[in-house]
User: Fold this.
Amino acid sequence: MNRIERAFADKKAFVAFLTAGDPSLKATEEYILEIEKAGADLIEIGIPFSDPIAEGPVIQEADLRALSGGVTTDQIFSMVERVRKKTDIALVFMTYLNPVFHYGYERFFARCQEVGIDGIIIPDLPFEEKAEADEVSSRYGVSLISMIAPTSQERIARIAKEAKGFLYVVSSMGVTGMRSEIRTDLDGILRQIRAVTDVPAAVGFGIHTPAQAREIAGKADGVIVGSALVKLIGQYKDQAHAQIGAYVRQMKDAVNAAEK
Amino acid sequence: MAKGRFGIHGGQYIPETLMNEVIRLEEAYEHFKKDPEFQRELEDLLKNYAGRPSLLYYAEKMTKDLGGARIYLKREDLNHTGSHKINNVLGQVLMAKKMGKTRVIAETGAGQHGVACATAAALLGLECEIFMGKEDTDRQALNVYRMRLLGAKVHPVTTGTMTLKDAVNETMREWTNRVADTHYVLGSVMGPHPFPTIVRDFQSVISKEARQQILEREGKLPAAVLACVGGGSNSMGMFYHFIEDKEVRLIGCEAAGKGIDTKLHAATIAKGSLGVFHGMKSYFCQDEYGQIAPVYSISAGLDYPGIGPEHANLHDTGRAQYVPVTDEEAVQAFEYLARTEGIICAIESAHAVAYARKLAPTLPKEECMIICLSGRGDKDVAAIARYRGENISE
Assistant:
């Protein structure tokens, strides 16, 4: 069983996102360990991008803070290499295609394997275009994680059939960020996914309260939270350890409380 | 690999949320392209509303002054709303209406595309929202007010460099937010397939007319056609029907800002590298880690870090040539054309005029060349005055 499979095995997974280098790579390293200690099952590490078109204001600002601090892809790889020696939690990158493409697929995914990255989420790489990256990432044992959106309709089965790692189900229209309400017919989407694959499906975009986490965990295999955590980091900078720990514990408890 | 490739460039690199919409758009476009009623309506709008065909004007004084090839200006500046942008916008907004959309959104740099879009939306009865970088709303305040007069809502974009690329980011974000009733009227030959093809087709009316007009006037094809290039819509329109005429040189003029040896430029072909951004694989100004570089030009319309995928391929194959033109050269050309021919052109178009001033004297007098005058320069007058150290209020 690989690390991503283990994250979803016999339980509902809580997935946390943070932007690498916000406010510093030292803080990111500490926060990854803090998030794991607080009970998260998988961590998405954002490689900041200058123009993150799928992100709402909270993560856009985090990307900007990280890049203004001078963080680079190479430094992020080194940080992951260090933190990997201290934890066995599943770690996946989330970034846009250009930083990966420009680094070179071979070089990028070889380095992912070397430092212990298990998967990657690339929001601007849809099903039709994924072959060029997937061919290389598979060779280095890095799962290219596919996304399904509220507008995917008949595409759901096609995407789910080729899914690797887990499926990232986008809960709502628009960009990342906290929402008071999620209206998408998640049951319908999850039913279509389960008809064709056993790969776990986690839901993200907009989720920030324990009540939402409990409700979503009742339907899906995992719950993904990004902006709420990034907002805490934005607020408490390199002193966010306690706040992050408390928030992740609360959310993980809510996920555990969901009806199986 | 997805459709919509120009060599290795193009493709559909966009979030899953938008995929079904661009697929539907492609189907709709394939349908309307062959629909005689749509074509009739569009032709009627282009002729009786936009004022096409645009003139091909022989710039006799400029020709004599430069002492080389005979210079013709394709007068897109005389179109309704003052630029070539109306060609694409009438096509896309008419199509959006027929697709049942009730709202259009668009990015704009200099404001020319935004004004054209607001105009077409007003005429055809659709809601319109325009995203424009805060820096551009400041330097092109007149166009902001123009859009509002036309009933559009203008959103100043305060993220990133607050210019055209950030306006595109924000319009894409808005499109993922509300796609069912909304069409994104992309203003250039860029973005995910099918946009580069749709915009090129609607803009290709420029070279369709120009090719016929020059054959009537000169009895032969031009030695060169020139146009400025940001994303590349007027140049793609100006090049398209000449691509098969191998003897015609196609020259795109990029914004070199303060010079391509400085960091302050937007010269994608001269200084950019292969990347994937704004839905397409093409050339982009970027750093060694693939972060998109902040770019600069005196011209808001050329202040973009990428270039359309079909241009990237024309560059790869050597069919077209791309040359950098600095702010200073463009401003001098802007002033030169005003004094010599009595035409105040857009500062964007002045980049093509500037290179023509270098090229014309090197060509024999029997040859001719065409410069695409993509827009008129009223919007730039205050900025040029500022550049020359004169502060005038608009």
Remarks:
- The CA atoms of residues 129 and 231 of chain A lie 32 Å apart.
- The mean pLDDT of chain A is 97.
- DSSP finds twelve helices and nine strands in chain A.
- Residues 3-256 of chain A form a domain with the TIM Barrel fold (CATH 3.20.20.70).
